[in-house]
Write a structure and sequence with these properties.
Layout: H1 2-24, H2 43-53, H3 65-76, H4 84-98, H5 104-117, H6 126-136, H7 144-158, E1 170-173, E2 178-180, E3 188-193, H8 199-210, H9 212-220, E4 223-229, H10 234-240, E5 249-252, H11 257-260, E6 271-275, E7 281-286, H12 288-317
Parallel strand pairs: 3-4, 4-5
Antiparallel strand pairs: 1-2, 1-5, 3-6, 6-7
Helix pairs in contact: 1-2, 2-4, 3-5, 4-5, 4-6, 5-6, 6-7
């Protein structure tokens, strides 16, 4: 009940924001919105209906760039309320409408690239963007040469995504020995890719070191943090390697393969990945706070399960 109220409030806030934005714009600039039937009352159903029918009034032959950007950014704000299946249906409808125009699909992708794939965008969402790419790249309305950059993006998005094995790495450790990522034995592993000496990287490293649960698990032996400088610049790494905690695995890529072969998406640093005991990716391009929250939720689930099993065993004993 509480979750439904929260979702309903979020949906109303989103729709209200859309209406306010439309009122502030001229009629020629506002994205043509649809009306949700009053018979649809639950928040999830209203959000689902809106996304599935969102593009019905959009004519890509007359839709301006300002209208397209307005409509796309408003729709993206609804994705947090929807399942992956609903997001797929929304993108499928968007691509179908865009195909009515010679340049529609290309324009849709360009705006999505700006808001969903750019790491500096507040709407950055790899899952939503990769879903759109899979729907759009099969369209015959995009020329083969125009597809190439987006296909390269999709390859990067599919690589090291949650649920897949992390690409193994050849690392040089602080004592000069060589090691593979797969050699590191731990129930959980945090990969911290950074640029030595960079202030933003230092700040995120500080957040990792100060996260109480992460520190607790590391000290308890259940988690290892691997700090990796992906550059082959040994001189730079040597200059700042003492800044890395002695309890972390301190390494750099002597071959430069990580950057050269695009083994990980490192368009901006720092980058953080969380891996399980088999080196499968749990979180990709996360923050220290997101890793902490994820680990906390896992521990709470385990504790709840153990408490339930204990209560069940106690009940049988009685």
């Amino acid at each position: 009940m509480k979750r439904t109220i929260i979702l309903f409030a979020l949906l109303l806030a989103t729709l209200s924001t859309s209406r306010l934005m439309a009122q502030e714009q001229t009629a020629s600039e506002a994205f043509p919105m649809i009306t949700i039937p009053e018979s649809i009352t639950t928040p999830i159903e209203r959000a689902s209906y809106l996304c599935e029918h969102y593009w019905e009034k959009a004519d890509f032959n007359t839709l301006t760039d300002a209208q397209l950007e307005d409509g796309l950014t408003n729709m993206i704000s609804l994705f947090s309320l929807l399942t992956v299946e609903h997001v797929e249906k929304s993108w499928e409808a968007a691509v179908k409408r865009a195909e009515s125009s010679k340049t529609g699909v290309a324009r849709l992708l360009a705006v999505a690239d700006k808001h969903l794939y750019s790491v500096s965008s507040p709407l950055y969402n790899e899952l939503a963007y990769s879903t759109l790419l899979r729907k759009a790249l099969v369209s015959k309305k995009i020329k083969k040469d125009a597809k190439a950059p987006y296909q390269a993006q999709l390859v990067m998005l599919e690589m090291n995504k949650p649920g897949t094995p992390a690409v193994d790495l050849d690392l040089t450790l602080i004592d000069g020995t060589k090691a593979k990522l797969s050699d590191i034995n731990s129930a959980a592993t945090i990969l911290y890719f950074y640029t030595p000496g960079d202030m933003n990287c230092r700040m995120e490293r500080f957040r990792l070191s100060q996260a109480r649960l992460i520190s607790y698990l590391e000290k308890a032996g259940g988690l290892k943090i691997v700090a990796i400088s992906p550059s082959a610049d040994k001189e730079l790494w040597d200059k700042y390697k003492s800044e890395i905690s002695a309890s972390w695995v301190n390494a750099y890529d002597a071959t430069g393969a990580i950057m050269k072969d695009n083994l990980y998406d490192l368009r901006i640093l720092p980058r953080i990945y969380l891996l399980d005991d088999k080196k499968n990716v749990l979180l990709k391009n996360a923050t220290a706070d997101q890793v902490e929250q994820y680990l906390s939720s896992i521990m709470q689930s385990v504790a709840a399960k153990q408490a339930g099993e204990a209560a069940k065993a106690e009940g049988k004993a009685e």
